């Protein structure tokens, strides 16, 4: 292109030199110079435009490369975004499941707690009732303990009284103890046991002389101790008694002997009859087996049982 322009300029110059006048030539020369100048400017602008074009092409390629990179980045980000969405969805699902389970467990716990609270209130009411009962029982126990102490004291006093009676009876009957008479305390009572050899002849219910004397000595003690109840029991061995009349056997004989002693006690002292009773035991409460003469002698006996009046103590116990 540039070579064509130079060649054209040369032809124009030759033509102008030969065909036109100097004035026109100068005008053309001036116009040509102007055109050359404009040409150079145009060429410079063209070169600049080419450079700009190259720059733009380079920039465009860079933009294309950036666009490709951005698309890759976008795709990667979209993939990550989708992955995060999936994770979020899974987390939401797990959260919903966990929350549902939690709410179910909370419901179960609340129901259990309500049941426990109901049971606790019932237990508290029961405990309060038991505490009230316990307080009442404690007061009752304290009252009964105090009453028991009083009863024990009364019983101790009665026991002391019994021991004192035993001592008095033993002292009063000292002279008869080697004649088959024995004084002892059993079950809170004084037992005066007198064998038949002291009180009666064999098969008889008439009290002997020594027996009457022993009864008189005993009656003095019974007069002094008006709080004693008196029981007289007749006992025999197992040897059959063959009697006549109203006394036919050992049982009848034991009753008659007990009754005879009661009558003699009432004669010997000022003793209220309501204090005394008589009974026959026959052979049915032996002290020893009826296998030897000595044992049978022990079983043939009359027992006078002295019992303290326990009305006050029994009233305490009630």
Question: Which features would summarize this protein structure in a list?
Answer:
rod-shaped, 70% helix, 318 residues, 5 strands, alpha+beta, 5-stranded mixed sheet
Provide a descriptive summary of the structure in words.
The longest helix has 151 residues, at 22-172. Helix 1 (2-19) packs antiparallel against helix 2 (22-172). The protein is built from seven helices and five strands. It has 318 residues and is an alpha+beta fold. Strand 3, helix 5 and strand 4 (276-282) form a beta-alpha-beta unit. The chain has helices at 2-19, 22-172, 196-199, 209-224, 250-268, 293-299, 311-317; strands at residues 181-186, 189-195, 228-235, 276-282, 301-308. The mean pLDDT is 86. It is rod-shaped, with a radius of gyration of 73 Å.
Mean of residue pLDDT values: 86
Binned strand content = 5-15%
Unreliable sequence segments = none
Widest β-sheet, arrangement of strands: 1-2-5-3-4
Determine the structural class based on helices, strands and strand pairing. Answer: alpha+beta
C-alpha termini separation: 153 Å
Shape verdict:
rod-shaped
Helix segment tally: 7
